[in-house]
Design goal:
Low-confidence stretches of chain B: 1-24, 86-90, 111-120, 147-157
Distance between the termini of chain A: 6 Å
Structural class of chain B: alpha+beta
Order of helices and strands of chain B: HHHHEEEEEEH
CATH superfamily of chain A: TolB, C-terminal domain
Largest sheet of chain A: 5 strands, antiparallel
Radius of gyration of chain B: 16 Å
Number of domains of chain A: 1
Number of helices of chain A: 2
CATH topology of chain A: Neuraminidase
Strand order of the largest sheet of chain B: 2-3-4-5
Largest interface: A-B, 55 and 45 residues
Low-confidence stretches of chain A: none
Oligomer: heterodimer
Strand content of chain A: over 45%
Chain lengths: 351, 170
């Protein structure tokens, strides 16, 4: 079973009619929807027996029972959601905007007993949940509008929310994160892109040693003489990269999957999505790594059908393709041309 | 933030000599009413305050400013109507153009929905990939444009509309 999260953008809530949907897909590709009140870039999270859903003024837990937790402070933009198994805490981080003194990234966290709120006083460029730890890549910590300084931080919940600085990250001018923060036994990883102009760009992997904080940089991809560099833009910044069996995988906006071997440092284009539409005009699409596979949610405009495809990471082989029915009917506001809805997250619950 | 806004407004509000001529002249009240019809979330007071500021900066008459604003909105609405026809075809699968990366200082404008074509979503590129956007009712956010997408109308939009949306958030 899979879940796809769709929402209107923050500006479409000006009339209070923003909307979002949790779309649940069963093994036969049948979709069912749960209507919510909207949250741009909302995220999904799961534990062994529960699913976490969020919207501007509420979070929900589904699965073993059903619970709703209304939230006093509304949010308009999501960043990351996840589940910390060790502490039985679901959390969600938001991009809450400029504050009097700087920037706020609010947090909601809790479980079936209830949810609390707090805030992280930084703008978050990227984040990741690895082995029950939350990592943040922040920028402009000192509010001086200097876009070249990044910092790597760790968040913990102990008895209250704590943010700890790990190290600063040296970057070149114009670098932008295009992946979540990842880590293995020895290193932290972040992938960044640099766009020289409208036609050329470079995607680099930055690696930080966990002990010494020494930094390396590797070039993953060079884009040269494209008719429009925007075609390479990734699909989902939280799910574009993943580590599996010593290889770091990265999916770019052209539907190509690259790998970096953490020991040999070999870089290659491992495989590509079948018949990928490399265009500035994008239809519904999302990716999600799960276990030993990469799942691709897509829409074929020629036959007007949604699909979920499953690719095996080791071989790049397309293992399964399931036709999805029912999504246009669920996204009613889009069907009636009242609102514009986009998918923002995709989670495999079991397969 | 205030300094950034001032620079933005100054660079945006560049009214030259109005190039379009209208078949008839309206009274000031009539222009105000027509403009508010096309921009429903606007009050007459807000509009006149904006027009006054522009007239001071540009050293033109308020009536000339109002006429210019009206002309731009009419042009926008006509062009949007043309695009709306093609946009419907993308409905079911959510087809949208990527906004993407741009040059620092560039302004972009994405209309919010088909209901209010000029009720848009305005932002400015703060870095190649980060924009500063007003979020109605909430405030202002920084936002990565690497991976997000929306609808873009491929025509030049009214600079006055943009300055209005940005100034509203402060």
């Amino acid at each position: 079973m899979a879940v796809i999260y769709f929402s209107t953008t923050a500006d479409q809530d000006l009339d209070g009619m923003g909307v979002s949907y949790g779309v649940f897909i069963d093994q036969d590709g049948q979709a069912k929807g749960l209507k919510m009140q909207g949250l741009e870039v909302g995220n999904l999270a799961k534990s062994k027996d529960k699913l976490f859903l969020e919207e501007k003024n509420k979070v929900r837990l589904l699965g073993n029972g059903y619970q709703e937790f209304p939230m006093e402070k509304y949010q308009h933009t999501g960043v990351l959601s996840g589940y910390i198994e060790r502490e039985n805490i679901f959390f969600s981080i938001y991009n809450s905007g400029f504050s009097q003194n700087g920037y706020n990234s609010d947090v909601r966290y809790g479980n079936e007993k209830g949810f609390y709120t707090d805030t992280i006083p930084y703008y978050i460029e990227s984040s990741g949940l690895i082995d029950d730890r939350i990592y943040l890549l922040t920028s402009d910590d000192d509010n001086t509008n200097d876009q070249s300084k990044f910092a790597l931080k760790e968040v913990s919940f102990d008895d209250k929310l704590q943010v700890k600085q790990l190290t600063n990250i040296e970057s070149e001018n114009g670098l932008a994160p295009v992946s979540p923060v990842l880590a293995d036994k020895d290193y932290y990883y972040i992938i960044m892109a640099q766009y020289q102009d409208g036609f050329n760009g470079k995607v680099s992997l930055i690696r930080v040693n966990k002990q010494s904080y020494a930094q390396d940089m590797f070039t993953l991809i060079n884009y040269k003489d494209m008719d429009d560099i925007n075609k390479t833009l990734i699909m989902n910044s939280n799910r574009s990269a993943y580590i599996y069996e010593k290889e770091l995988y990265f999916v770019d906006g052209l539907g190509d999957v690259y790998t970096f071997h953490s020991e040999t440092k070999e870089i290659k284009k491992k495989f590509s999505f079948k018949e990928f539409n490399q265009s500035l005009l994008r239809y519904d699409q999302e990716i999600s790594f799960n276990g030993d596979s990469l799942y691709f949610f897509r829409y074929n405009p020629a036959i007007k059908k949604h699909f979920i495809e499953k690719y095996e990471l080791k071989t790049g082989k397309l293992e399964k393709q399931v036709k999805i029915t029912g999504i246009p009917e669920i996204l009613l506001e889009r069907k009636l041309n009242l609102k514009s809805l986009s998918p923002y997250d995709f989670l495999i619950v079991n397969d | 933030m205030k300094k950034l806004l001032a620079v933005t407004l100054a660079s945006l509000v560049v009214f030259g000599v109005p190039t379009q001529s209208f078949a008839f002249e309206k009274s000031r009240t009539a222009y105000v009413n027509e403009i508010i019809k096309m921009e429903p979330s606007l009050t007459a007071k807000e509009l006149l305050k904006n027009a006054e500021e522009i007239s001071k900066t540009q050293k033109t008459e308020i009536d000339a400013v109002l006429k210019q604003i009206y002309g731009e909105l009419v042009k926008d609405a006509e062009k949007a109507k043309k695009e709306q026809g093609t946009r419907k075809a993308y409905g079911e699968g959510g087809g949208k153009y990527i906004i993407g990366v741009s040059t620092k200082g560039d302004i972009y404008y994405t209309p919010s929905s088909t209901a209010y074509l000029n009720h848009g979503h305005v932002g400015m590129y703060y870095a190649t990939n980060i924009v500063i956007e007003s979020v109605p009712k909430y405030g202002v956010r920084k936002y990565e444009k690497n991976h997000s997408y929306g609808v873009i109308y491929h025509y030049s939009f009214s600079p006055w509309i943009i300055s209005l949306h940005i100034s509203r958030q402060y």
